[in-house]
User: Fold Proline--tRNA ligase from Mucilaginibacter gotjawali.
Amino acid sequence: MYKFGGWYQKNSINYYMSKGVVSKDEDYSQWYNDLVIKADMAEYSPVKGCMIIKPYGYSIWEKMQAVLDVMFKETGHVNAYFPLFIPKSFLSKEAAHVEGFAKECAVVTHYRLKNDGEGNIIVDPDAKLEEELIVRPTSETIIWNTYKGWIQSYRDLPILVNQWANVVRWEMRTRLFLRTTEFLWQEGHTAHATAEEAIEETEQMLNVYADFVENWLALPVIRGKKTANERFAGALDTYCIEALMQDGKALQAGTSHFLGQNFAKAFEVKFTNKENKLDYVWATSWGVSTRLIGALIMAHSDDAGLVLPPKLAPIQVVVVPIYKHEEELENIAAFVKGLTAELKAKNISVKFDKRDTHRPGAKFAEYELKGVPLRVAIGSRDMQNGTVELARRDTKTKETVAQEGLSAKIESLLEEIQQNIYQKALKFKTENTTEVDTYDEFKRLLDEQPGFLSAHWDGTPETEQQIKDETKATIRCIPLDNKQEDGKCILTGKPSSQRVIFARAY
Amino acid sequence: MYKFGGWYQKNSINYYMSKGVVSKDEDYSQWYNDLVIKADMAEYSPVKGCMIIKPYGYSIWEKMQAVLDVMFKETGHVNAYFPLFIPKSFLSKEAAHVEGFAKECAVVTHYRLKNDGEGNIIVDPDAKLEEELIVRPTSETIIWNTYKGWIQSYRDLPILVNQWANVVRWEMRTRLFLRTTEFLWQEGHTAHATAEEAIEETEQMLNVYADFVENWLALPVIRGKKTANERFAGALDTYCIEALMQDGKALQAGTSHFLGQNFAKAFEVKFTNKENKLDYVWATSWGVSTRLIGALIMAHSDDAGLVLPPKLAPIQVVVVPIYKHEEELENIAAFVKGLTAELKAKNISVKFDKRDTHRPGAKFAEYELKGVPLRVAIGSRDMQNGTVELARRDTKTKETVAQEGLSAKIESLLEEIQQNIYQKALKFKTENTTEVDTYDEFKRLLDEQPGFLSAHWDGTPETEQQIKDETKATIRCIPLDNKQEDGKCILTGKPSSQRVIFARAY
Assistant:
């Protein structure tokens, strides 16, 4: 374990438990890391770049999966499962694809360990694979090799398949949830008879992602297309949704690719079309990952801890009893039992924390840290008065309300909190999206008030690269709803017909 | 692809689609393989030993996951996720554990590919890992290394965590679902303050598995303990459920292990107990896998195809219209619309197959092959008479029933089918479980009427091994509800106090 050295030790749970959460303004990056670890979302593992998703963090992923899975099925998709390993030769079949992924592949070369006779476990040199296997960084190649056997005619199309899986991309600089060597995701892979139908699917899934991120993560996004430089390796067009984090950096929250006939050509997947002619099949792929959990944390949280939108919060309401004597607790517990039943009937998750090992104040801080949207505190006086104290995590406001009608009140408050978190993020995004017309202003804003910068660009990869080299800002996307507008490229002054969105990004 | 040669080609879908399903009595093994492939459950992949789980097969896994996940949560467990990779040194820390898994480990040695300058993609020799990583064959080691950071005192216990994941065990002889190099499973890993509590957990989870397999897969099992020879590598006790397949071979359907303090000692996981003394933590682990889908197919199916218990069938009811003219179909469709709504309200999944590209007979054969429990056929005369034809997959019986009250009739029939499939399997198990008192009889039955053989054994690993070497039969388990009974070992004649269950096994 210690051979992983400083990295592991410095990031171990004990290291963090001994310190508070650093403030967001002081060190945004450290604040994020502290939050993830102190709120029990995830921790680093001894395998470099891989994380352990702890139960609290994983339960958010489970909620995301459940919602997305329904959305995928409602749009006609089914799930399947393809192998973890991809023969090296498969990856090489699509030139741009292998170019994009070769540098970050985990390679399996042997299939056995053995005892060397001196008590050491070593890799058995006699168990070398004839052809190395790549741990999938994405599954286009193995899936299109499979589709070859599934498709003969247009009657076999479309194929609308999704896979929930783990993938591995060997990352040198990692960050919990946002960029890890192994991550969990879903990858949709569809096959179509026409380019139009494939493009329609690509756009449909982008809209599914945008709806999900806006309505469930309470995070407004820009829907757009990537420039050629930023496209998925092997795609003709990459659509994306881009969100803005509280430090003004962009985060790509989901992508949907129109792959054209590239993979069909690489794997010789042809079909007989309605005109009885042979043609290559048209493809899309689309994915979101556990990165979304990172976006969720970064976008809404504050110095006291997570702020979770109610729709994805593992615990939506926590009830903390305040009492001195056991009889008081019994009295409170009887009330809470009824409340819990009412809330469960409304599909609201509630936790009654009656631990006698922690004071109410410590419990308040714990649930604040964990981002529980609503806290109900009940003491003996409340029981006499028929009231409770309700505290909102998002606004940090408290009010005393009647016990009568409490579950209905909670239900509407949760709705309101979800909306409020979204509106706050939307306001932030609006205030931090700026039209810029000169390169000096562009650079000044990146340093002084980073955010989405809407600027003219001459459309060349060279200009895009030079801006990136000089400012670390990339073109996040060309928005789908862009208005046409004459202007001049901020770098070269050459003519441009539309603005694009620049930002520094995660 | 062709480098995988005969194996892949011979097992490709096209190879099978051109042939019928071989009869069960003629070649049981081939019958099983044909069924899996022709019913669209799974197919072989070009990665040796790895399979592709097709949408129809995967939807059964999704149903299994959904039910088990609720059962796990009802017994207090939560889900989490640990890394796919395990440092080689971790695996070596528990001596019996590494001994058990070393021979079947996929080993990652490099983390990058590169272009060799002549257009070939090769493994980059400069990207060799300092320590090799093992693709998890099971996660005890990485999880217990993590638990070390989670546990200080008895107040941190128990930890009740489950993981849904893929694992890899390099198998030389594979069989779809039953034994594959990569498979999907869940693995529970719990930590306890006392041996008693850990044993109670081990037994609880065995009972969860047995309930699930009996009530959902409609498959009766024997609950028992493994002998020392057959234990999980690193366990003090392995509990198992054993089911009987139609060829008289046993199939281990789930295991639950009492790991004692072995992994806590290997990873130095100590806690302060209630008496304020340091002690090692007690462990369990338990798992079931996609192997269950293989058991489901093998146990109930026949020469015409799958026979799926309604509770796990992806499609529970299929409706096939029989018509000549478009107006007839419209009439039928209007009725089916109402029926579908009624069935959906009862949570019964129904498919209306109105494809005009297939004749009714072809559809009947297809759903028979796919094991759909109930088929409703409706023609124009049925519409006039207010009737439908109902066909059961399990008994292959047909009856004409009234349209009125049809959804209630279907609901109760599905219940009846579930029970009937279970009772049939129970009868088979009872008839093929035989008490045997001599070795000659034992060997004769194994050849002539294989099944569970209940026999006396002297309790030594040597005798167990000799019987295995001579007959290929292993001790499947020592049943938990065993009655004590004096007898003599069938091989050595030495005294024995209880019978154990022998069988040849998958």
